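[09:14] KT: can someone run the structure on this one? pasting the chain below
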Amino acid sequence: MNKNIFLIAILLAVILIVNGCAQNQNIAVASRYSKIPADAVKITPQTDVSPPKSYSADYKDPVPVSGKVNSAGAEDSAFIMPDGNTLYFFFTPDVRIPAEKQLIDRVTGIYVSKKQNGEWGEPDRIVLQNNGKLALDGCEFVTGNTMLFCSAREGYIGIHWFTAEFKDGKWKNWKNADFNPDYKVGELHITSDGNELYFHSDRPGGKGGLDIWVSKKADGKWAEPENVAAVNTERDEGWPFVTENGNELWIYKDYGLWRSKKVDGQWQAPELIISHLAGEPSVDNTGNVYFTHHFYKDSKMIEADIYVAEKKS
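[09:31] RB: done, structure tokens below
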């Protein structure tokens, strides 16, 4: 999700929960299309005033993902599974509405779409809260049958990390999974071997703004984070993604997607791959890059879609 939109939404949701406005009631899931406002205009590549472009000979110019993922609402926070056939994302129908309405609109949250005959099928909402309680879930990361996600929800004050497990065809059994609060773990990625946790944070000791940090697992616990100095600057770097083979670290900075390669065990200075208004990279095993493209008008975000930049053969 767009950093500012998501943080504002979370803060407002927390205020809502703390003030007791979020009642313990059972809210049925509605069609996401039913909540998209009547005045919403679907932006297309033909009407996009700032289309994303490839700056690398390795990649084709990005295009919206085919099929039924994108709408006139906001699809954000893409996460592609390694085989390229399952796509998770965050959806909210109208970025203009306040978070207390997102919290109870019955459609804002995490969705999943499956690829069918080369096209993305109708997404299903993943309802992670239970007992009729309210939650604002996002920033999903999936490995195997485990999902990590951050949320503001009834019974908790502030933003917390949670896990859920995929069992009997559903995501269930969520539980708190907070990291050491001193680490200030933002949106994250865990390497395929499970031994390194990459995340963005404005924790002390960085180069400025958001930096990329890595925490390595020692004796079953996440050790003190280290600054990934090769990719950080005094500006914001965030939303890390490490490819399945561990050789590429993708990040967002300066409104675009950058790639660092590992050489002799060390990350190298990143290079710009895709820009403009491209964020939150996620890469499948073929090398195709899925990301969020935000659309703006008069300096205000009006919607967002999931795009893909295919890797050339």
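[09:33] KT: thanks! The CA atoms of residues 116 and 207 lie 44 Å apart.
[09:34] RB: yep, looked fine to me
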